[in-house]
């Protein structure tokens, strides 16, 4: 199998704050892989360790064990220079489209910066900026404007264009649509899919929202308290979850269709009954 990113038995421990505070073990033996052109959705509740996983891939989290290999090369402890050279291959789109763009630079400068840093001439950078804006569905006159002149969805398109500038092989998308309203979310998610179909980029797509992950992912990994509790084909995990945590996550996700909502409510009650029966059965004296 052709693997782009291979995470193997990854541990991340944040140093404790304050005198004699214990380190916090945020990831405990996470293993996963991503193939070229594929989307791996990572889903889990707040605090489960999703962003920590993304940050570790980007070299921004303290890896205390295991490995992260990109195209077969271990990148879990790279120095600054090696990390910079990897920036062409691994990019990121963060959640907040308001703070992730430099407010004092116009769009031409924001998108042209990584290109110039890689030796593009002004003319080359300018042509590429036009192409990037076109690719994310923004008009070419956007180039002379400042980030504050755009809506949240448009800013996220600019952030995506910037991530695409160096033609990366992998983009870490950390809750990239969570700050957007529902209809904008849908359009931006479709843009992610369309870009992938055109460029063959792979995504590590992090979200707390199961419906978002289901929409974009080929495969889904479910994180719970720093561990992967379920990992498989997108449809399999989202439609027939095995782990009780995934089942709870799935049943808690909102659904627009009232019939489906009723079905879910009944399933949730049934699941709670089964889980409480199972607990009763394992408790001493329980299960009667
Ligand atoms: N720099 C840090 N120092 C100490 N603890 C941290 C640090 N960053 C994250 N944590 C802790 O690690 C755990 C995982 O955090 P992380 O941000 O990865 O979760 P998450 O699943 O992405 O949640 P959210 O969706 O709320 O961001 C949390 O308990 C968090 O408090």
Q: Brief overview, please?
A:
The chain contains 10 helices and 10 strands. It has 288 residues and is an alpha/beta fold.
List keywords for this structure.
288 residues, disordered C terminus, binds adenosine-5'-triphosphate, ABC_transporter-like_ATP-bd, ABC_transporter-like_CS, 10 helices, four-stranded antiparallel sheet, nucleotide-binding, P-loop_NTPase, 22% strand, ATP-binding, alpha/beta
Write the layout of secondary structure elements.
Layout: E1 5-14, E2 24-34, E3 39-43, H1 50-57, E4 63-70, E5 73-74, H2 80-86, E6 90-93, H3 107-117, H4 122-135, H5 152-164, E7 170-174, H6 182-199, E8 202-207, H7 210-216, E9 219-224, E10 227-233, H8 234-239, H9 244-252, H10 258-282
Parallel strand pairs: 3-8, 3-9, 6-7, 7-8
Antiparallel strand pairs: 1-2, 1-4, 4-5, 9-10
This protein binds adenosine-5'-triphosphate (ATP).
Spatial order of strands in the largest sheet:
6-7-8-3-9-10
Percentage of residues in DSSP E strands: 15-25%
Q: Helix fraction?
A: 40-55%
- For the termini, the CA-CA separation is 50 Å
- Element order: H for helix, E for strand: EEEHEEHEHHHEHEHEEHHH
What gross morphology would you assign?
globular
- Our Rg estimate from Cα atoms comes to 21 Å
Q: Are there runs of 5+ residues with pLDDT below 50, and where?
A: 282-288
Care to count the β-strands? 10
The number of helical segments is: 10
Q: Give a short account of the largest sheet.
A: 6 strands, mixed
Give the integer mean of the pLDDT values.
87
> Ligands bound here?
adenosine-5'-triphosphate
- Determine the structural class based on helices, strands and strand pairing: alpha/beta
């Amino acid at each position: 199998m052709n693997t782009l990113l291979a995470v193997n038995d990854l541990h991340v421990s944040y140093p404790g704050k304050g005198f004699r505070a214990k380190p916090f073990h945020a990831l405990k033996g996470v293993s996963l892989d991503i193939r070229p052109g594929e989307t791996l959705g990572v889903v889990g509740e707040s605090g489960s360790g999703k962003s920590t996983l993304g940050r570790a891939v980007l070299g921004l989290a303290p890896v205390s064990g295991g490995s992260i290999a990109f195209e077969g090369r271990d990148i879990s402890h790279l120095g600054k220079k090696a990390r910079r050279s990897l920036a062409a291959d691994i990019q990121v789109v963060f959640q907040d489209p308001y703070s992730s763009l430099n407010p004092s630079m116009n769009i031409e400068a924001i998108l042209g910066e990584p290109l110039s840093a890689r030796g593009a001439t002004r003319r080359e950078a300018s042509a590429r900026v036009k192409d990037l804006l076109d690719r994310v569905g923004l008009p070419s006159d956007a180039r002379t404007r400042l980030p504050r002149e755009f809506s949240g969805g448009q800013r996220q398109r600019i952030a995506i264009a910037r991530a695409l500038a160096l033609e990366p092989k992998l983009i870490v998308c950390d809750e990239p649509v969570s700050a957007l309203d529902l209809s904008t979310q849908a359009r931006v998610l479709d843009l992610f899919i369309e870009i992938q179909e055109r460029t063959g980029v792979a995504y590590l797509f992090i979200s707390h929202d199961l419906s978002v992950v289901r929409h974009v992912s080929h495969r889904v990994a479910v994180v719970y308290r720093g561990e992967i509790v379920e990992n498989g084909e997108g449809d399999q995990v989202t439609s027939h979850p095995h782990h009780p945590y995934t089942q709870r996550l799935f049943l808690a996700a909102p659904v627009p269709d009232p019939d489906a909502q009723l079905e879910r409510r009944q399933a949730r009650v049934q699941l709670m009954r089964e889980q409480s029966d199972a607990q009763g059965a394992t408790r001493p004296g329980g299960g009667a």
